[in-house]
Amino acid sequence: MTFSIPAKPLRAVVLGGSGYTGAEVLRFLLPHPAFHVVAVTGESHAGASLGDVFPHLGSPLTLVKMGDVAFDDIDVVFSCLPHAAGQAMMASLPTSCVIVDLSADFRLRDVATYEQWYGPHLAKVLQKEAVYGLSEWYADDIRTARLIANPGCYPTASLLPLIPLLRQGLVDTDIIIDAKSGISGAGRKANVTLLGAERMENFSAYGLGHHRHYPEIMQECQAAAGQSIRLTFTPHLVPMVRGMLATLYVRGGDLGAIQKTLEEAYNDAPFVHVTHKAEHLATKYVSGTNRCHLGAFAGYHKGDVILVSVIDNLGKGAAGQAVQNANIRFGLDPTLGLQTLAAYP
Predict the structure, then answer these.
(1) Structure confidence at residue 190 (pLDDT)
(2) d(CA 54, CA 49)
(3) pTM tops 0.90, yes or no
(4) Residues 244, 177: contact at Cβ < 8 Å?
(5) How confident is the model at residue 146, as a pLDDT?
(6) Of 48, 86, 186, 228, which residue is the least packed, with the fewest Cβ within 10 Å?
(7) Among 216, 193, 190, which Cα is nearest to 204's?
(8) What's the CA gap between 153 and 186, in Å, rounded?
């Protein structure tokens, strides 16, 4: 397929640009050859320059309040607002605006399930237009979508290895996911439990039996399997800033068939690398990128298979995938602006 860069840059707005996810979206967008960022919102930092809030971005753009942005001539809105904070506003945007939403507001197709886990939904009509934005599996839907619901970080790391196997019926539907994340996934807000003194030299499980990403993973696994599944999902915080590693335990699988299926599924996927070398499955090798490294290995008992998947929770788990989805939506090369390699060591 041949791709070209539009002669006229696509006008972009980033909502919630003063958080970690917003900053990461801007890190990819500001040098992007096809998108031109015309406005960045940050309610608590309105009036400050982006370069003052995030010196590493070195941008003279001034953060503004959402009410000061004119959306009539905007091509794409990247919403990095907290859950529920932007629902009503996004429902009021002109239909000419493509929305890439990085919160959980539109990921769950069933509104009742959303309200069970997150609270009242204020944009139920708009929800019907949402397309789940797992880039490698929903590209055809993304190309024509008005609203792209960017997946969560834990679901992205978990679903990339699981979906091809469940679609082919290669594993039992009793799945265990043990996942670890860097603390940046909790956001930039002030929180005593996230202070360095609390998190460094510390490793803990959280959200036991009720993490909000559970229904999202369930939704997509059951869609892939075409039947109900039994899922155990436990997230953990590890004492590092960014990165995510998911270890998944599946049963009833033939290792050779599983490895072959993963290789074939992602043979043409520029950001997913299937490896048979366990030592390559480390967060350091994907840090700051939109890449996912994954692999399948024999378990201790016959038929048991261990899947390992690593991503950057702010990259492929959030901002990188959002830009990848925008590239797909506007007919651009999916890798445009995302060719960054990990910094090592």
Answers:
(1) 59
(2) 9
(3) yes
(4) no
(5) 97
(6) 228
(7) 193
(8) 11
Strands (E), the chain: 10-15, 35-41, 63-64, 76-79, 98-101, 130-132, 147-149, 174-181, 204-205, 230-237, 244-250, 272-274, 292-298, 305-311
Q: Which of 97, 153, 221, 292 is catalytic?
A: 153
Token pair for residue 108? 């769950």
The candidate with the shortest Cα–Cα distance to 294, out of 259, 330, 318, 344, is: 259
Q: Token pair of 343, please?
A: 């910094």
Contacts for 342 with CB less than 8 Å, ≥ 6 apart: 284, 285, 286, 287, 288, 289, 291
The pLDDT value given to residue 326 = 98
Polymer length in residues for the chain: 345
**Domains of the chain by start residue, with CATH:** 10-128 (3.40.50.720), 154-313 (3.30.360.10)
The candidate with the shortest Cα–Cα distance to 164, out of 269, 97, 279, 263, is: 263
153 is catalytic: yes
